[in-house]
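Researcher: Sequence of Triosephosphate isomerase follows. Predict its structure.
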Amino acid sequence: MSSRKFFVGGNWKMNGDKETLGELIMTLNTASLNDEAEVVCGAPSIYLDYVRSKLDQRIGVAAQNCYKVPKGAFTGEISPAMIKDCGIDWVILGHSERRHVFGESDELIGQKVAHCLENDLCVIACIGEKLEEREAGTTEDVVFEQTKVIADNVKDWAHVVLAYEPVWAIGTGKTATPDQAQEVHEKLREWLRENVSDAVAGSVRIIYGGSVTGGNCKELAAQADIDGFLVGGASLKPEFVDIINARS
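Model: Prediction complete. Tokens:
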């Protein structure tokens, strides 16, 4: 296994209330978690303060999105400064649902990445191809183009985790096979080596997302270039503990 610290993010999306999230937090706070894993939970923005106040400090908290400027007339948006003010250190950017449901462009996502990093907010930057793009054989073109826009806006990769999430595997029950996922992760690392640096290629964590469960996590985690997971639905269930402990 590499020296890169295993990273598991839970993306709770638009789910939960204080009662159910409180129960989940209790489960996580009392669970035996792998000390070698870094864990971050992405809470709905309205619950960020609540979750940070209740969740054990060994577990990080992330906002699921934010805007590209510090403040202003942007109804419904939140800024990195606000996120930091709630004691939150992470944000998820470029998730496929932001790209394809809300129409966020590569350019906007790149601007958000730059602004967050300038304000000391760590970024989980998401990339991934749609089913028709995979079937057309353009997976590499799509994910390299998305990664380039992110990379163009990063000065310090120590605060960035790349999340490869094939869109066709998110919430569908379909998972990229360990070989399929490893192949893309390996090619992403090669791209970083050629376009950024050997050091960044060797150190940046590339995590996998797309119907990760307690049942498939160990085999995925055993792949050389898969450094963890961004977990959707399963992060709201007790099996999230099993996924965190996939390398235990």
